[in-house]
Every structure is written in structure tokens, then in C-alpha cells.
Amino acid sequence: MPCQSVWHSCGESPHRRHRWGSRRISGASPFAPGFKTHANARGEAGGVVATGQNGRVCAVRLIPIHNDIVSSSWGMPGGISRALGWPETTDAQAELWLGAHPSAPARPIEANDFEALDEWEKQSGTTLPYLLKVLTAAHPLSLQAHPNPAQAAAGFAREEAAGIARTAFDRSYKDPYAKPELIVALNDGFQALCGFRPIAQTAAVLTQLAEIAPEPEPVRAFRELLTTEGLRNTVAFTLSRTADVQTLVAALVAADQVDGTIAPVIGIVQRAFPHDDGIALALLLNHLTLREGESLWLPAGNVHAYLHGSGIELMGPSDNVLRGGLTPKHIDEAELMNTLVFDEVADPRLQPIELADGVRTYRPASVPSGEGVPFELWEVTAQATLTLPSASIFVVTDGDFTLTLPGSEPPLAAGSEHHLARGSAHFLTDGAVATISGGGRMWVATAR
Ligand SMILES: [Zn+2]
Asked: I need a surface site. Which of 60, 99, 180, 388 has the fewest CB within 10 A?
């Protein structure tokens, strides 16, 4: 019996879940209650069989996938090809989407019983609660924030009811889902703006800039506004599109030309977006330079902009972006103000958790602002046994791995041993215990 027949006969998914489902899988079994693993006696591709509550079986499969690279003006020439060891190119490569989002779902490399992962979601009744991306940026991305689940659902319904086409310039909500995100730097020197810097720190920077500014008054006034009225009113001012903002930006740029070391973000942004109002907003944010393997956590309402570098990004399965500057795209100031969380963020880094030798996870749920976020990103660098809780997506950025699914004692069942070469991506259709050999750097998106 071919694999797809097994899948279709199942009629239910062992991991039926919603995008924000909080179902937890406990105990030693990697499978949900009601499911058990056993050897794949039929010798079909996959090697793991989950038995559904109806007693029928679904083969767990590992499927090579691919997608088209997303180009963008901020993309890094040949960046994704370099990150994945593909043939060199000079194209401005911004993102590679590895997920089921209908805007750009990943596809099986070989013919399968589904054309793309969004179709697999419909067939299986399963929703991947994440979207994995490889991102490479040569220039700053837009200043942006993403909605929480309630804001996303309400915003999507509102724009649908208003009859705004999903591809329209002024459409903000392309789907009804939240988009919290994390990013791990693939190289030293990944730069980003992330979260509001403590007010006292920004005030100190503004004091220094005012001391050297040819036109210090707008800088002093901005400092006064921030320290007396706080972040909300100060951000509202930066988004007001008034002449006063342009005067302030001109004063900041002139000060930066006197001494570019006080707030290097001014020069970085000025080179990409000369005299953009977003320069004033950018100055309120933490400016971080990550080392390889360091990570940022960007929960709902966090304002951020990646500036330069390569990273692996994992986020909610959404494309909902509220922009606040550094973009020719639509800026909806009112909706951005509704979405932003005006808290000071002392350190937006997400510390990984060691799971075993050669395996660690970047887990949003390990910090209070990530409570309820089901996805996490595993980094595998050496041989290991992975107990994957649910359908997962793999991408290899370095080295070479072999993945074996259980039930594949010699003689190996066809397809139960898989070669995961550098630059390849794979989709595991359900939770499984996978034995990994080889070494390098492999990323696994999964969810609990
Ligand atoms: Zn973002």
C-alpha cells in the first residue's frame, strides 16, 4: 500500500491542533495520548506508525521540501545561497519561507499526495503553529510590530468586513493570527533594533547628542518629552508626520555627522532611509549586535527592525505586520499605537536551554512574555536522539546529518534512513523519536 493511502485512510491527525492550542504532551511517549508507536511491519516509507483512536494507522513521513526565495530591496546579495551552501548568486535574497503559510507554502521536492504544506494542513486537519524562515539582510527592514492573537483576529475581521483586498496597499491584517517571533544569528555581527530601551539610557544618549548638535534645541525638547511624558506620547510624536519630527530628525542627523559613535543607529538608518521620520523612533530602541547563536525574542507588541545580518527565524504562522517607518509600504499609525506594548525592555535576548549534548532549544515559553507560545527552535550540532513532539521542519545550515526513524532495525525499511545534507530542508509529518548521526548545524522547528 503506498504511503499516501495510509495517510488518507487515517481520517484524523494524531496532532490535530489549532494555531494557539496549548495541548501538552506529557510522559515518556512523544505521541499524544491515545497514540502509540510500533515497528513499521509493512516496510513502508517513514518507519513510524501512530495508531489513531479509530485504530487506523498513519505513517510518519520525512519529506524533502523546498520553496522559492523571497527577494526584497533589503535582501543580502546571495545571502541565503551562502547561508545554505547553494550555488553563488548576486540576487538580493531576503527570506526563504519553510512552512504552510498560504502566501508562500513550502512544497515537496518530489511528487507527493499534496502539492504544498497548506494543502497538507487541510488534508490532515493539522495546523503548523509556526513558520520557519531563513533571513539575510543587507539593509534595515521596516520598523514594525505584530499583533497579539485577539488583535489579529479582530483586525482581520474588520478589514474583511470593510472589503479591503488582501493584497491591497493599505491592508494590515493578511490572516487572523498572531506573529510572535524569535531569531537566532547565524554569524557574529547580526544587528537589530528590538524593544524600547530603558528611558534613562535613551535620555543619556540624547543629552550627549544635544551637547554636540549644531541645532541642540529639538534634541533637548525630545529628551524632555520622553522623560516627562513617557514612551507612549513620545512614540505618538515620532509617528505624527509633523514638521517638528522632521526638524528633530535633521538635528539628530547633523549631530551624528559631528560624532557618529554616540548613537550609531542614526547613521545606519540615515544611509538607507535619508531623513526618514523612523530615525526618531529608532533612537528609542535597544540597538543590539548579536554573536553567532545569540537570539532575540520579539513577543506581540514588541517594536523592532533587523538592520543587517543572517539568521534563522521562527514565528507564528502569520504575515501580519504593523509598520512604523523605514519603509515605502503602508504605515497605519493608529493601529500600530494600538498594537505596541510601551514597556521598557532591558535585554531582549532569549537564552537557549541545553536539552542534551549537541542539542539546545530556543523556547519562548521559557520567558513570561512567551507564555502559551507553542513553538520552539532546536539547534542540533552532533549526534543525538530527538524526541520530537509534533510535526517538525528541518533545515541544515552546516555539515551533514543522517536521520533514522524507529522501526528501522536492519534490514532498513525503505525511506526510514534519510540524508540531511547542508542546504536541505525536510518536513516530518508528525512527532517521532529520531536518531541523528553526523555533525554540523541543523535547525528544527517544532511545537508542543
Ligand atoms: Zn517582525
From this structure: 388
Q: Which three cell numbers stand for residue 101?
A: 503559510
Per-residue pLDDT at 25: 25
Q: What b/e readout covers 145-176, taking b as 16+ CB neighbours within 10 angstroms? A: bbbbbebbbebbeebeeeeeeeeeeebbbbbb
Ligand 1 centroid–CA 76 distance in Å is 17
The model's pTM: 0.85
Cα(268) to ligand 1 centroid in Å equals 19
- Tell me the C-alpha distance between 222 and 203, whole Å: 9
Query: Distance from the CA of 122 to the center of ligand 1, in angstroms?
Result: 27
CATH superfamily for 1-73+99-118+370-448 is: Jelly Rolls (2.60.120.10)
Write down the H helix ranges in 138-198.
149-161
pLDDT, tens digit (0-9, with 9 covering 90-100), for 402-433? 999 875 444 445 457 899 999 999 999 999 99
CA of 305 from ligand 1 middle (Å) equals 7
Q: How much distance in Å is there from the Cα of 30 to the middle of ligand 1?
A: 31
The residue that leads in pLDDT, 39 or 384, is 384
Contacts of 207 (CB under 8 A, 6+ apart): 223
**What confidence tens digit (pLDDT) does each residue in 72-120 have?**
999 999 999 999 999 999 999 999 999 999 989 999 999 999 999 999 9
> Residue 362 to residues 306, 379, 382, 396: CA-CA distances in angstroms?
19, 8, 17, 16
The residues facing 394 across adjacent strands are 426, 444
Domain ranges of the chain: 1-73+99-118+370-448, 198-283
Q: Which helix (H) or strand (E) holds 1?
A: none
CA of residue 300 to ligand 1 center, whole Å: 9
Instruction: Flag whether pLDDT at 26 surpasses 50.
Output: no
Q: Cα 267 to chain center, whole Å?
A: 27
CA of 61 to the centre of ligand 1 (A): 31
What is the 146 CA–ligand 1 centroid distance (Å)? 6
Count of Cβ atoms closer than 10 Å to residue 271 Cβ: 10
CA-angle at 351, arms to 347 and 357, nearest 5°:
165
**Cα 124 to ligand 1 centre (Å):** 29
Q: Is omega for the bond preceding 147 within 30 degrees of 0, making it cis? A: no
Compute the distance from residue 330 Cα to the ligand 1 centre, in Å. 15
H or E stretch covering 129: none
